[in-house]
Amino acid sequence: MLHLKNIYKCFAKGTSYEIEALRGINLHIPEGNFVTIIGSNGAGKSTLLNIIAGTILPDKGEITINQQDLTNKAEYYRARFIGRVFQNPLLGTAPSMTIEENLALSIKRFGRGLHLGLNNERRELFRNKLVQLELGLEHMLTKKVALLSGGQRQALTILMATMFDPKLLLLDEHTASLDPESSKKIQLITQEIVKEKKLTTIMVTHNMQEALRYGNRTIMMDRGRIILDISGKKRESVTIDYLLKQFSKLRKEEYIEDELVLA
Amino acid sequence: MTWSLLGHALEQGLVFGIMALGVYLTFQVLNFPDLSVDGTFPLGAAITAKIIFSGGHPLVAIMWAIIGGVLAGGLTAFFHTRLKFTNLLSGILTMTLLYSVNLRIMGKSNIPLLGKVTILDIVKSYFPFLSLDQLTPLLFLFIVLLVKVLLDYFLCTEVGMAVRATGDNEQMIRSLGVDTKITKIIGLCLSNGLVALSGSLFAQYSGFADVGMGIGTIVAGLASVIIGRSIFKDRGGIGWITISVIVGSIIYRATVMIALRYGYRLGFQPGDLKLISVILVVIALTFPLFRGRVKSIVASNGSNGTENK
Question: pLDDT digit string (tens) for A15-34?
Fold first, then answer.
């Protein structure tokens, strides 16, 4: 499904602020996998998602989805394959448009035409989808999204991101900026939709517990590299404590590596 | 006396209402402060005057004016999306170069259309029982409503919604598969086409085209949008918004005309027109603020301070 080959990305190259955000990422995610990604701030998690989505282009490397080379394709083109939910609930919806209009925007990923974006058939479809969220949004189709809470907006974004059955779903700490109650609810909705549609999913999270509880594979990143990739039986036996220990151990090794290079 | 003044305000308000709809499309819908309209309004007038003066049909003239406006909008979009200039600079460049283009088209700085056959004369020949004073506002009302309905429809189509979303949340609509360069091009072309149409009709209505007639178009357009929006504040549908823009345009023209007619008592001169229009924009922009304050004062007095807000 998704192949990343030797991805490099450097920000502000040649200046004193130079940051090597990704340093040789190789990743293969087969169809139907649910991968969780953890790592500290600045590990390159968000950059990796941005590279996959096409928001930023890599300096080096190759990205393919189902054997199609997407390395130099623009973000809007990749949207044919990718659904995305952002960390910031404000990013995923158009605030001055109504709920039904937002949903109508998500129904097609290309080939938009000059016929009306809304009709009764579509409204019925939206109502049926919104009922499943159990947030009462089905009664507020003509309400502006700006009036919704962060949790409601995020739930709507998930619905929009998966409306057309994407090949790949990207979740970038999509519950991090919500209160615990909404966070739980949004996570529940996410898992239900992913299961129902059997979506290949990448979820970035800060929460180690979440990273191990959801999905079937966990990747740990640190300073632009993948330092741990576990799945199957091994993952089942792993505890948060183990992850933390592994993290500090691997980090130490890398420091030594760097010191050797610098010496 | 006053009635004919208001009649003129209505006619002009309707003609400039088309321009205001164009400004609404860029400034509010697309969130793109497009200054090229100061050049596309006289462009529409210049093309129209040139064609009519050389004996062309007014409808042909209107058609070419719209095409010219669309191309000018496309140029602004090209500056912004391909050459990556900021939106303000892109508009300023187009506006400035159109001044020369307009002079080239007209060959001189002013073309009078007195005695030439305009769209008003042609329509009048189908309605001989109406006087020109009756026909003019009716025709302009028809055209502006036609534009409004078409624009409303467009903004509710899939493409139109994508244009709206581009102005509302560009990152989001890109992640939903829309090339925002294209939606910006569509919005700018459409907007400037409308502004040029407005310029074309104004030239035929007022009987001349002048290179300087575009100065302050953007302020007038903005004033109309803001006045209209502050009157119909709480209504959100597209249909209401476009109506409010047209009404705003009429109110703006009426205010300007009253200021010009009676302003001399306050010491205003005809040259102060642009100053007055800016003052109007400032008042319209701060009006909602005042209204909120007055409301809250009234509310706190009415409820004896039991509700603290």
Answer: 888 888 899 899 999 999 99
Q: Give me the amino acid identity at B103.
A: L
B79 vs B72: CA distance, rounded Å: 11
Task: Name the amino acid, one letter, at A146.
Answer: A
Task: Report which of B56, B60, B58, B26 is spatially closest to residue B40, judged by C-alpha positions.
Answer: B26
- The residue of B30, B81, B158 whose CB has the most chain A CBs within 10 angstroms, and thus the best one to mutate to test that interface, is B158
3-class SS of residue A11? strand
Length of chain B: 309
| Residue B308 pLDDT | 38
Give the closest of A77, A82, A116 to B156, CB-based: A116
Question: Which domains, ranges and CATH numbers included, belong to chain A?
Answer: 2-262 (3.40.50.300)
Judge whether A109 and A162 are in contact, CB under 8 Å: no
* Residue A253 and residue A70 in contact, taking contact as beta carbons nearer than 8 Å: no
Rg over alpha carbons for chain A, rounded to the nearest Å, is 20
Q: Which residues of B touch A86 (CB under 8 A)?
A: 171
- Helical axes B238-262 vs B132-156, angle rounded to 10°: 140
Give me the interface pTM, i.e. the ipTM. 0.88
Name residues whose C-beta falls within 8 Å of residue B262's C-beta, 6 or more positions apart in sequence.
none
Query: What are A11's strand-pairing partners?
Result: A19
Written as six digits, the tokens of A243 are: 């992850």
Angle at A260 between CA A258 and CA A261, to 5 degrees: 65
In tens, the pLDDT along A180-235 reads 888 999 999 999 999 999 999 999 988 888 888 898 999 999 888 898 898 888 88
Instruction: Report, as ranges of residue numbers, the positions in chain B whose pLDDT lies below 70.
Output: 1-3, 234-236, 288, 290-309
d(Cα B60, Cα B66) in Å, to the nearest integer? 10
Give the list of residues 6+ apart from residue A197 with CB closer than 8 angstroms, or none.
Answer: A162, A165
Q: What is the pLDDT of residue A119?
A: 92
In chain A, the N- to C-terminal Cα span, in Å, equals 41
The alpha-carbon gap from B38 to the nearest alpha carbon of chain A, in Å, equals: 28
DSSP run (H or E) holding B236:
none
Average predicted confidence (pLDDT) for chain A: 89
Three-class secondary structure of residue A225 per DSSP: strand
How far is the C-alpha of A48 from the C-alpha of A50, rounded, in Å? 5
* Domain ranges (residues) in chain B: 2-211
pLDDT one-digit tens code per residue, B59-87: 999 999 999 999 999 999 999 999 999 99
Chain A residues contacting B, CB < 8 Å? 53, 55, 74-77, 79-80, 82, 84, 86, 90-97, 101, 104-106, 108-110, 112-118, 144, 160-161
CA separation for the pair B36, B59 (Å, rounded): 24
pLDDT grade for A240, boundaries at 50, 70 and 90: confident
Q: Which spans in chain B are helix H?
A: 2-23, 37-53, 58-81, 87-106, 119-126, 132-156, 158-168, 170-174, 180-206, 217-231, 238-262, 273-302
